[in-house]
Amino acid sequence: MMTAPETRPSLLLRMRDAGNQQAWAEFLEIYQPLILRLVRRRGLQEADAREVTQEVLLSVAKAVGGWDANPARGSFRGWLATITRNLVVNFLIRQGRHPRGTGGSDFVRWLEEVPNVEGDESQLFDLERRRQLFLWAASEIETEFRVETWRAFWETSVVGRSVGDVASELKMSAGAVYVARSRVMKRLRERVEGTRE
């Protein structure tokens, strides 16, 4: 599968303008489901996970103007992962004052862990970000291709079926399946990298 690039600096610059609805819509489409999945993985109930997700998005909206794209200070996704983790911790601390059933001591252990931006949590965040970015880009470009071309790509690259089986099912040559897959992958990369806005 493709390697997902860093968040495009152009998107981050456009997000600094709170009135740029297109930039914010793109950001929300990519990152809101990602943040929600990460928060759910911490064991929060659905309503609580949605509340924390909204807090994360509000924090980003307030702070994105001051975020500096300086590699020495870290990546945007690291910054976003830190905001997400901190707001989950804050939520869990608030819940400690008003206890709810959590089903175990995992929360206490997790709260006591020393945050490691380059550790497992950062890797999980990156994996989820890549998944969401792929799903977003795929939904953006799918209609640009004939149904057979898209199915040849999807069945071989995502589902993992053999080229021979897919070629036979779609009544295409194996070479045509490879070409279709290559064309879709190229367009996915372009969409993800933002070379075609």
How would the blueprint of this fold be written?
Blueprint: H1 9-15, H2 21-40, H3 46-63, H4 76-97, H5 106-112, H6 120-141, H7 147-159, H8 163-170, H9 174-193
Helix pairs in contact: 1-2, 2-3, 2-6, 3-4, 6-9, 7-8, 7-9, 8-9
Tally of individual domains: 2
CATH architecture of the largest domain: Orthogonal Bundle
Average residue pLDDT: 76
Helix share bin: 55-70%
Return the CATH class of the largest domain.
Answer: Mainly Alpha
Strand count, sense and barrel status of the largest sheet are: none
**What does the overall shape look like?**
elongated
Summarize, please.
By secondary structure, the chain is an all-alpha fold. The protein is built from 9 helices and no strands. The longest helix is centred in the middle third of the chain and has 22 residues, at 76-97.
Please, could you describe this protein's structure?
It is a single chain. The protein is an all-alpha fold. It has two domains: 9-143, Orthogonal Bundle (Rna Polymerase Sigma Factor, Chain: A); 145-197, Arc Repressor Mutant, subunit A. 70% of the residues lie in helices and 0% in strands. Helix 3 (46-63) packs across helix 4. It is elongated, with a radius of gyration of 20 Å. Residues 1-6 and 97-118 have low confidence and may be disordered.
Q: Which labels suit this protein?
A:
single chain, 197 residues, mainly alpha, Rna Polymerase Sigma Factor, Chain: A, Arc Repressor Mutant, subunit A, 2 domains, 0% strand, disordered N terminus
